[in-house]
Amino acid sequence: MSELARFSVSLEADLLERFDHYCSEGKFATRSEAIRQLLREALTDEAVSGPAEDAAGTLTLVYDHHRSGLPEKLLELQHRHGTLIVSTTHVHLDHHLCLEVLILRGQADRIREAAAELRGLKGIRKGQLVLATTPNIP
Ligand code: NI
User: Fold this and answer.
1) Residues within 5 A (CB) of ion ligand 1
2) What is the pTM of this model?
């Protein structure tokens, strides 16, 4: 770990109040810990800028499996990108909604492409990709 550096931040009182609420809700030990995590999240996407860079991540999808043709399209796309998908977990949330989490590993641009195709399907309610570089995850 590199040497710690300190800096001061100026922000509006109400924003600080919201941030402190975020810190306590998130059970962060200190404001610094919360800021470190937020910065890493913000900078990871930036860091994974080289298209051929090795990366790993998760894609979270929420969708209605009654949507015509959607489960078949999801399955077809997952097979097409099968070499990138390490694992999938599927939870039936209720009679309609499904939560699916895919773990992906491979070249950053290929992961982004696969995630864009999957979450771009009609009927996907939520699609979020979280990407990290490997092996030196920041
Ligand atoms: Ni389901």
Assistant:
1) 92, 98
2) 0.70
Place of tokens 């790993």: 56
**What separation in Å is there between the alpha carbon of 98 and the centre of ligand 1?**
4
Closest listed residue to residue 137, CA positions, set 48, 52, 11: 48
Task: Return the beta strands (E) in the chain as ranges.
Answer: 54-64, 85-92, 97-107, 124-133
Q: Ligand 1: distance of its center to the CA of 90 in Å? A: 6
| Å from CA of 122 to ligand 1 middle | 16
User: What is the tens place of the pLDDT at every residue in 21-68?
Assistant: 999 988 888 999 999 888 877 776 656 656 678 899 999 999 999 999
